[in-house]
Write a structure and sequence with these properties.
single chain, mainly alpha, 3 domains, 21 helices, about 55% helix, globular, Orphan protein
């Protein structure tokens, strides 16, 4: 273990990497006796590999039974530092990596990234990028803006809507969005649905977005705005989230943005990513590359740290596997949906040519069951079982 801890001192680290190493070493010192008890046979020669190895020690191989209670926050801090370091180092490769290398990395890590599920989200939202928020059903609006809810039918929303920067903590934004969706539509209307997006377009959006908060007690913040922009134009705008912002800013070589840095988001994030070699080299050689090219501004999101637990922590997977709970009266506890949402979801399902006419004739009954909280697929399945 001692050899592992000191090995970065013999690596050719840059200034940022050296500072990260010193911060990690400081936390390691606090639990050095516990770390020394771990046998290490793998000694990576690169800093990224070193971070992965030490993180595995800190998460899976250290004896937590021997840790004092006051040491647990130190271990958590060490894990967080290493995760942030891995994200930074992987994101930093975006500065110089060509398009084939970017695609190769994503393909290689597709399982831990839950890539299939993430692409289902972007594919689902693609047809509604120009649809006004005020015309969307509540569930689609949640999907577009990145907030999970129990009302999302897993047979329709077979993905976690919080991929690409969750906005669940932006309560003021979501309350205002529910009350005045048209105000955000006015802002988004300044961003062309296709073609070039200019700084003037972005500034017009910014003015509209800030105006949506005028006359309210809510303060406009940057992260939810970038989610709206990224879903409107995933080939131009990269979404940000507070818990990953340090790694992104370090990788781009910029000072950390705060939650009101609307001007710097365009100049420091959008323009920095736009000038990277791979961004201009995007090709469509095969289905996956075609999908990635259409959402190329989202690709930095695939370079944050992910492990075998990332996919399992998807809200979609959790909702899919959520055990059925019973109410006090003995019935199944369900989440009711609005009639408009139920109608839209059912009509989408009934548009499938494989659905027989006599099942389509049961539309009103199916809507009633879906409105009560039953899933669309389950309801249609029951109708088929009853009526053939």
């Amino acid at each position: 273990m001692k050899k592992l801890l000191i090995s970065p001192s013999k690596m050719a680290l840059g200034e940022q990497e050296s500072q990260i190493y010193q911060n990690i070493l400081k936390q390691s010192t606090e639990i050095s006796l516990n770390l020394m008890a771990v046998k290490v046979e793998n000694h990576p020669e690169d800093f990224l590999g070193w971070c992965y190895e030490l993180l595995d020690v800190a998460k899976n191989r250290i004896n937590f039974d021997l840790l004092d209670d006051h040491q647990l926050p130190t271990v958590k801090k060490l894990q967080d530092l290493l995760i942030s370091a891995i994200s930074f180092l992987q994101l930093k490769t975006l500065r110089i990596a060509p398009w084939p290398v970017i695609c190769g990395f994503i393909e290689q890590h597709k399982d831990v990234l839950a890539l299939e599920e993430q692409l289902k989200l972007t594919s689902y939202l693609a047809p509604m990028r120009s649809t006004p928020l005020k015309e969307m059903i509540a569930e689609d609006r949640l999907a577009f803006t990145g907030k999970h809810a129990a009302s999302l039918d897993t047979s329709v929303y077979n993905f976690d809507v919080e991929w690409f920067a969750s906005t669940k903590s932006a309560k003021g934004f979501h309350q205002l969005l529910a009350d005045l969706p048209g105000a955000f539509d006015d802002a988004l209307a300044n961003i062309p649905a296709e073609g070039d997006v200019s700084e003037q377009d972005y500034q017009a959006f910014m003015i509209g977005y800030l105006s949506a908060f005028a006359g309210t007690d809510e303060k406009p913040t940057l992260a939810p705005a970038t989610r709206l922009l990224a879903m409107r134009r995933p080939d131009v705008f990269t979404p940000i989230s507070n818990n990953r912002l340090d790694a992104l800013c370090q990788a781009l070589g910029i000072s950390r943005l705060n939650n009101r840095d609307f001007e710097r988001y365009w100049s420091d994030v959008v323009m920095s990513i736009r000038t990277m070699p791979w961004f201009a080299m995007t090709t469509e050689n095969g289905e996956l590359e075609e999908q990635l090219a259409s959402i190329k501004a989202l690709l930095p999101c695939f370079f944050y740290y992910a492990d075998k637990d990332t996919a399992d922590n998807s809200n979609y997977i959790k909702l899919l596997n959520k055990p059925v709970r019973s109410s006090r009266s003995g019935g199944t506890k369900t989440v009711r949906r609005g009639k408009e949402s139920a109608e839209v979801l059912v009509d989408r399902a009934l548009a499938d040519e494989s659905i027989p006419d006599h099942i389509r004739d049961k539309r009103d009954s199916i809507i009633a069951e879906v409105e009560k909280g039953r899933s669309v697929d389950e309801t249609i399945g029951l109708m088929r079982a009853i009526f053939g």
